[in-house]
Design brief:
With 467 residues, this protein is of the alpha/beta class. Strand 19 and strand 20 form a beta hairpin. The chain is globular. The protein folds into three domains: 201 residues, FAD/NAD(P)-binding domain (3-Layer(bba) Sandwich); 113 residues, FAD/NAD(P)-binding domain (3-Layer(bba) Sandwich); 111 residues, Enolase-like, domain 1 (2-Layer Sandwich), CATH 3.30.390.30. The strands form six sheets. Strands 1, 2, 3, 4, 5, 6 and 18 form a seven-stranded mixed beta sheet that branches. It has a five-stranded antiparallel beta sheet with strand order 19-20-23-22-21, sandwiched between helices. Helix content is 33%, strand content 25%.
């Protein structure tokens, strides 16, 4: 049997590709060595957001006096929280990500380790799958820094922390990126003592610096011990505790260590180099159509190293299938929004202030910002610790950054505006519901419109004299 498409890996990208390709009537086989759903379902988005939800409820109970209610210290059953996480995963695995659902679509699921055996062939054990096209979407795994003593002491990652039966009472988190800060805040809110070590000078370094600084302040106010410029140099064990020593001589002890130091693309054992596919430190090299250096083989998602997000993996997979089987080119979008799901959430799309000035020059870049302390909705919700920062170049929006509740929802309006090449003032013509967080966007747009209108104040004055 010859297939139209063989998909290697049934995570976020593979699921989208399989459903899209099957809907086109193509003959599809999908190879998965472990569980359908990939990192998003089993070790990433789903369990982490379930953890964050429990932590947020605990935080509201603890701070209920802010809303005129009696604040109490919540009785937290960590084992029950972890059982809830697993129950949600199983629910999704038995419904939307159920293997039977894909079989019913006509996708043949093949269990085992895949190896590329040529430009149009994938080997799974003794079986050879002949195919017109191959899509590699094997994802990534946690990167583990080479810290002396770390392996011997033992540690957790995003792949193992949600498998715990009895979570620790104290933890040192290594890494201040999105995974590190999300888990640090959640664990702290659930009563676990958290120390967060970030070797750089700020958290979430890909985001707008001023909002990263505000977010660090939120975590510190809640009790997370945030240490910037703290690079781990050695790990030891003493008295049943794990000790992390930093390069500046400080010692941090806890029951457990959580490594959140980035991701490594899963490219090993695929036989990529044997078929002439270029692999870099970031993953499989691809072009703007997600094609590898072998034209019949595509790669999407984390393994391609473009953006390590579930939503980009799905987008890339859909565009890759389009490019494979439709006339024309399936070029992927270069404009990618993302959100770190702390509380408040930190959302980002387009350029930071520094990036915009480097690309367009200081004179052509303007920055508009408003603190949530001026938002009626934020004040009513008791959530005024945040800010919206909008970046324009020659009046057109090129970047948007939001630290606010539900920032991940709010960012999409601004993503569309940037994609459409809109001017900030043009958003003022769209009526925004009051009171919402997006009213603050409307406020900034209105101020931009007023500035523009003042350029023509002379016409108003002239008309007044003429009247």
């Amino acid at each position: 049997m010859r297939y139209d498409l063989v998909i290697v890996g049934m995570g976020s990208g593979g699921l989208v590709a399989a459903e899209f390709a099957a809907s086109l009537g193509l003959r599809v086989a999908a190879v998965e060595r472990h569980r359908i759903g990939g990192d998003c379902l089993w070790t990433g988005c789903v369990p982490s957001k379930a953890l964050l939800a429990s932590a947020k409820v605990a935080h509201h109970v603890r701070t209920a006096d802010r809303y005129g209610l009696r604040a109490v210290e919540p009785e937290i059953d960590l084992e029950a929280v972890w059982r809830r996480i697993r129950a949600i995963q199983e629910q999704i695995a038995e419904t939307d990500d159920d293997p039977a659902r894909y079989v019913a679509m006509g996708v043949e699921l093949v269990q085992g380790e895949a190896r590329l055996a040529g430009e149009n062939a994938v080997a799974v054990g003794e079986r050879m799958l002949e195919t017109r096209r191959i899509l590699v979407c094997t994802g990534s795994r946690p990167a583990v820094p080479a810290i002396p003593g770390l392996e011997e002491a033992g540690f957790l990652t995003s792949e193992t922390v949600f498998e715990l039966e009895s979570p620790p009472r104290s933890i040192v988190v290594l890494g201040g990126g999105p995974i590190g800060v999300e888990l640090a805040q959640a664990l702290n809110r659930l009563g676990i003592r958290v120390t967060l070590l970030q070797k750089g000078d700020r958290l979430v370094p890909r985001d707008e610096p001023e909002l990263a600084e505000l977010l660090a302040g939120v975590l510190e106010d809640e009790g997370v011990d945030v240490r910037l410029g703290a690079e781990a140099s050695r790990v030891t064990k003493e008295r049943g505790l794990k000790i992390v020593e930093s390069t500046n001589g400080e010692r941090f002890e806890a029951e457990e260590i959580l490594v959140a130091a980035g991701r490594t693309p899963t490219t090993d054992s695929l036989g990529l180099e044997d078929v002439g596919i270029e692999v870099t430190r970031c993953g499989i090299a691809v072009d703007e159509r997600m094609r590898t250096s072998v034209s019949s083989i595509y790669a999407v998602g984390d393994v391609a190293g473009r953006y390590l997000f579930t939503h980009t993996a799905g987008h890339e997979a859909a565009m890759a299938v389009r490019d494979m089987f439709f006339p024309g080119k399936g070029k992927v979008s270069a404009l990618v929004p993302w959100t770190t799901f702390t509380d408040p959430e930190l959302a980002h799309v387009g350029m930071t202030i520094e990036e915009a000035r480097a690309a367009h020059g200081d004179d052509d870049v303007a920055v508009d910002r408003v603190d949530l302390s001026h938002s009626d909705r934020a004040r009513a919700d008791g959530a005024s610790a945040g800010r919206i920062v909008l970046v324009t170049a020659r009046d057109k929006l090129v970047g948007a950054h939001i630290l606010a509740p539900a920032a991940g929802e709010t960012i999409h309006e601004l993503t569309l505006a940037i994609r459409q090449g809109m001017k900030l003032r043009e958003l003022a013509s769209m009526i925004h519901v009051y009171p919402t967080m997006t009213t603050s966007i409307n406020l900034l747009a209105a101020e931009a419109a007023y500035r523009y209108a003042r350029r023509f104040g002379w016409l108003v004055r002239l008309a007044k004299r003429g009247g």
